[in-house]
Design goal:
Distance between the termini: 40 Å
Number of strands: 4
Radius of gyration: 14 Å
Helix content: 10-25%
Strand content: 15-25%
Strand order of the largest sheet: 1-2-3-4
Number of helices: 3
Amino acid sequence: MNQLNLNYYGKYAVPETVRELFEFEQELRAEDLSLDFNLGLIMTQEDIRYMSTPPDVIPFASCGVDGIHYGFLTDFGLAADLEQAYIVCVSPMNMDQEFGL
């Protein structure tokens, strides 16, 4: 990923922490390493939402298993900036809890 998709974050600026993670990923790839392969953190700028992803969450990473992904909770735009927003983990394949089976 050479350049961050600035539109992906809507009205929010891309958090500096996310920028640094993308830069770190590029540095790791130069060494044949990766956040993905070596740590299990897949940074994304694509919409990886499931039906169970809250509409006020901006996903930024996944772990590549069972659709689990991480995102910034915007509180429907009330979060001042994403650097201060809560980070949530969405586990869409955890059917036992979602449907009460």
